[in-house]
Protein: Protein ANTAGONIST OF LIKE HETEROCHROMATIN PROTEIN 1-like
Organism: Aphis craccivora
Amino acid sequence: MAAKFRIFKKPISIELEKVSIITMTCVLLHNFLRRNETAASIYTPPGTIDICDNTGVIIQPGSWRREIGENCAIRPIDQVPRRSPENAIQIREQFTSYFYNNN
């Protein structure tokens, strides 16, 4: 989404409530455009999105990865060699379940 919606190219400096509204609006618009056959071919042409195997390992990275620059607010998170707190694992699993089942 950061490759398509410019608001995610840098930190959002507004009230937290408005950030939440903007983010959810972008998520809804993104999902609509991805599911609509006519819009999907324009919004995400072939090669835009990662191709993964059944285990989730990226086989072919999408072109969006090249469009995310160092100035973007969304960056890869460095791996920290420690065990995640239990509540963080539960939150991650809830997000995974929600987004994986709503594609």
In short: Residues 1-76 form one domain. The chain has one domain: 1-76. The longest strand covers residues 58-60.
